[in-house]
Specification:
It is a single chain. The protein has one domain. It is globular, with a radius of gyration of 16 Å. It contains six helices and no strands. The protein is mainly alpha-helical.
């Protein structure tokens, strides 16, 4: 898990952040956002890859302006990824580990944050 999270950050670090604030994922051979192409609207994840790329280039303020939830997710991926690798290398469990309820609440909170940011972006158009 740790290598997967850190690997995603490593991939983001070699991408050039798209100056439009979205579309960076297209450098990976992925298609443009379907919702944007069809309806002219950003999807909840529009700008997330760009925010990860900006964050890995040390441009946290630009990353947060591009996609605040994505930036938070990139930081969480960094912390959790590093901890997971350290735990795997040491072969020891952490003294404290989040339970299922804590993980579920965190996941729902992050999803709600993404949706709230998306609604805000749609309203600001």
């Amino acid at each position: 898990m740790g290598l997967g999270l850190l690997g995603a950050l490593a991939i983001a670090s070699v991408l050039s952040p798209d100056p439009r604030g979205r579309g960076t994922h297209e450098q990976l051979g992925l298609p443009p956002c379907t919702l944007t192409v069809v309806a002219g609207l950003p999807c909840p994840a529009c700008g997330m890859t760009t925010s990860w790329s900006l964050a890995t280039h040390g441009r946290l303020a630009d990353a947060a302006r591009t996609h605040a939830s994505g930036t938070l997710l990139a930081l969480v991926a960094l912390v959790v990824g590093l901890i997971a690798v350290i735990v795997a290398v040491q072969g020891k469990r952490l003294a404290w580990q989040p339970g299922e309820t804590t993980l579920a609440i965190g996941g729902v909170a992050l999803a709600l944050l993404v949706v709230a940011e998306w609604i805000y972006r749609l309203a600001a158009r």
